[in-house]
Each structure stands twice: as C-alpha cells, then as structure tokens.
Amino acid sequence: MEASTTKRVRLLEKQMRAKAKGIGTFAVSLLAASLYSSCGCAQVSTQYPFCLQGDDYPGWSNCSFTSFQQCQASASGTLDECMANPWYRADANTVQQSRRDQSENDGPIPIGPPPR
C-alpha cells in the first residue's frame, strides 16, 4: 500500500508541475502581449501635419514635420516621400485657457490684511 501511495504522490507532483509550467508560460505570453500592445511606436502623432513614409519609416511612423518643405528636406536623397497626416488636428495644438485665466477679476492683487 505504501508503494502505491508513493506512486500517486509522484504522479500528483508531476501533474502539478505541468500545470504550473503551463500557467507560467501563459503569464509570460500575456505580459509580452500587453507590453507589445502598449508600444508607442504604433501610435500616430496628431501634433504634426506631415509624415515621412518609406522603407525606413513604414506606415505613419514618422509624423514629426511642421511643414511640407521640412519633410521634403528630410526625404531628399532617399526613396521616402512626404504625406499629409490624416490624423492631424490643428486645434490639438492650441492651449485652452483655464477658468482661472478667463476670470473677469484679473486686476491687481490686494496687499494688506483681509477684508472684514
């Protein structure tokens, strides 16, 4: 009876190690997938109106130019080309005033004891 119990314990240990290995593999693959999906390289900049595209910059990966001429200067001598950024939003670059800045009470700051 003792030999069969030892066999069962070894079998259970083996099964538990296999499950732990599977869980560890799953956790590592889940971590890798989450890191890959949060990669900033896949994001397109909406701050700049022109993008450089080509073999060195596939897709919309280099949208960092404020003018078409600036983009063309960077593309000069290469097979890259300049494209208008379809995600560019001109209003995304403007700074909105805060409520405090829009206040009508923009006069001088009074100095002295607080009013009673």
Question: How would you summarize what this structure contains?
Answer:
Helices cover 38% and strands 10% of the residues. It is α+β, with helices and mostly antiparallel strands.
What does it look like?
With 116 residues, the chain is of the alpha+beta class. It has helices at 2-37, 68-75, and strands spanning 50-53, 62-65, 81-84. The protein has a domain at 42-92. The chain contains 2 helices and 3 strands. It has a 3-stranded antiparallel β-sheet, covered by helices on one side. A hairpin with an 8-residue loop joins β1 and β2. The longest helix is centred in the N-terminal third of the chain and has 36 residues, at 2-37. It is flat, with a radius of gyration of 31 Å. Mean pLDDT is 75; it is low at 37-42.
Global Rg = 31 Å
The shape, in one word, is flat
Tally of individual helices: 2
Strand content: 5-15%
Class of secondary structure makeup: alpha+beta
Largest sheet: 3 strands, antiparallel
Portion of residues in helices?
Answer: 25-40%
Strand order of the largest sheet: 2-1-3
Strands, count: 3
Element pattern in H and E: HEEHE
Chain-averaged pLDDT: 75
Give unreliable regions as ranges.
Answer: 37-42
Alpha carbon gap, first and last residue: 93 Å
